[in-house]
Write a structure and sequence with these properties.
- By secondary structure, the protein is an alpha+beta fold.
- The protein contains eight helices and six strands; from the N terminus they run αααααββααββαββ.
- Strands 2-1-3-4 form a four-stranded antiparallel beta sheet.
- Helix 2 runs antiparallel to helix 3, helix 2 packs parallel to helix 4 and helix 4 packs across helix 5.
- The radius of gyration is 27 Å and the shape is elongated.
Length: 227
């Protein structure tokens, strides 16, 4: 389209672009057909795609979306190319699934490995930095599991597909509060214990501990909350 052909008041161009008005009906038919193709492709890739996505599954969905988009909105784009792409994506996903089942090393190479973010009520700050996880993100995941302080946690794993798995401690121990600072009412209802924990990582301060935290080197200690 030439620059002189662009007019702000051209409603037809704004609504239909360079395609004819009848192409809107064809778009609906194309969308119905490609919707069916996507439904079949996702069905053949397995139930995992409908839940938490792995890296390869996310790549597969992006490839499907990239193939389907132009075929829906572009008049000169046929329907056969996205069908071929969908078939190829399904085959690749199934091949990857078979290889990850037979070869655990290949699965770790493609999907990555789980990481331990919290151990015995103490955060692993190096693991957080290595996986680009902020404290606020970790705290939010723990609060969604009903946790209010780190002492109630035995382990927190960051799974290879990005979800958090929380294992609660039994029995619980006093630990660092993970309640937001702005929630003053909740903080006022909590009673601190005589123990102190590192404000950076949540490690408990032993009776022989010095000024610095032996786990992360922090120098700020706060009262621990009871279990």
């Amino acid at each position: 389209m030439q620059a002189e052909e662009i007019r702000l008041g051209d409603i037809s161009r704004l609504l239909f672009g360079e395609a004819s008005a009848s192409f809107a009906i064809e778009v609906i038919l194309r969308l119905v057909f490609l919707y069916a193709v996507l439904a079949v492709a996702l069905r053949m890739m397995g139930r995992r795609v409908a839940s938490q996505l792995t890296r390869t599954e996310l790549i597969s969905l992006v490839a499907l979306a990239a193939a389907v988009g132009p075929a829906v909105a572009t008049p000169d784009q046929g329907l056969l190319p996205p069908v071929i792409v969908a078939a190829w994506v399904v085959l690749m996903q199934r091949w990857i699934g078979i290889w990850t089942l037979r070869h655990p090393r290949f699965e770790h190479l493609v999907q990555g490995e789980a990481a331990t973010l919290v151990s015995d009520g103490r955060m692993d700050l190096r693991a957080l930095r290595r996986n680009s996880i902020s404290r606020d993100t970790l705290y939010a995941a723990l609060r969604s599991a009903g946790v209010t302080q780190l002492g109630a946690v035995e382990r927190v794993y960051l799974e290879s597909h990005g979800s958090f798995t929380t294992l609660l401690a039994n029995p619980e121990r006093p630990g660092l509060s993970i309640i937001p600072d702005w929630d003053t009412d909740f903080h006022a209802a909590q009673r601190a214990t005589g123990e102190r924990v590192c404000e950076r990582c949540g490690a408990a301060r032993g009776s022989q501990a010095g000024v610095r935290c032996p786990s992360c080197g922090g120098t700020s200690w706060v009262p621990a909350l009871p279990s």
